[in-house]
Amino acid sequence: MGIQGELRQQARYLRDLTRCIGLRGALEWRLRQQFRSRGEESLVRMQPGCLRHEVALRVGTSDAMTYRQVLVAQEYGVLADLDPEVIVDCGANVGYTSAFLLEMFPRARLVAIEPSPGNAALCRRNLASYGDRVRLIEAGVWSRSCRLVVEARRGDEWGVKVREAGPGEAGDVDAVCLADLGLPRIDLLKVDIEGSEAVIFRDGVEAWLPKVGALAIELHGPDCEAAFEAALAGYHQRRQLSGELVILRDLRPAPARAPEFGQAGRGSAASGERAGAISDQVESADRISCSGK
Prior knowledge:
The protein is of the alpha/beta class. The chain has one domain: Rossmann fold. Helix content is 30%, strand content 23%. The strands form three sheets. It has an eight-stranded mixed beta sheet with strand order 5-4-3-10-11-13-12-14, covered by helices on one side. It has a four-stranded mixed beta sheet with strand order 6-9-7-8, with no helix packed on it. The chain has a two-stranded antiparallel ribbon with strand order 1-2. Helix 3 links the parallel strand 3 and strand 4. The longest helix has 33 residues. GO terms for molecular function: methyltransferase activity. This is FkbM family methyltransferase.
């Protein structure tokens, strides 16, 4: 690549970075990226308008893109009409979504779950200002207790995946089941776990899903979608699609419908009606607005 090509590439990179974290943040990012020692972790501190506290981003990682998605575009602002007291953040990454939700819902307490040690360390730092309103669990969400292998790549820290450790593998972190958190209810469950939702919605879902009042989830592929829809088939809900998120409000198990007098032969048809009554309302939102909280 010639000098002009290199300059164009650098200009595009700076432009994209500026869209994520602003000009001042982008310039500081590039300076720290240029002058940091090899292997040294360098942080940029930012003060987004929707938070009362600064948060840190790791230079050379996907943190800038996560920051833009959560704290600039405010994709979870669509939940502002809720009033949860208990929130569980599955796939907390470095804590931006947890911080956003704690600011938007000042009465809430939150459990943040993150399997990546590097992400969890920064998550703990970014959420320290919220004190005992936050409990951080360094683990992977799964359907049973086991050891998990963490699969992460530099530059893709927002796409950390886990899998169950095989024979002879020690694993990196423990698995945690939502049913084992000791919570009598979960007013808002946020799930962004890069494919593991296929596991948690396929096995053992009856032990925790009835406790959930509202759900915000990002689904990753057909297997995840199939497991999710099968698990929710017997639930009333109000469904909204907002960007990459599927939002379920007023989530509750649908009561079994007793067969009407003289209609015993319609058992299979009634069952089909119950399965078809998945959603009370479907809404779409092409653009997420700022909640202002």
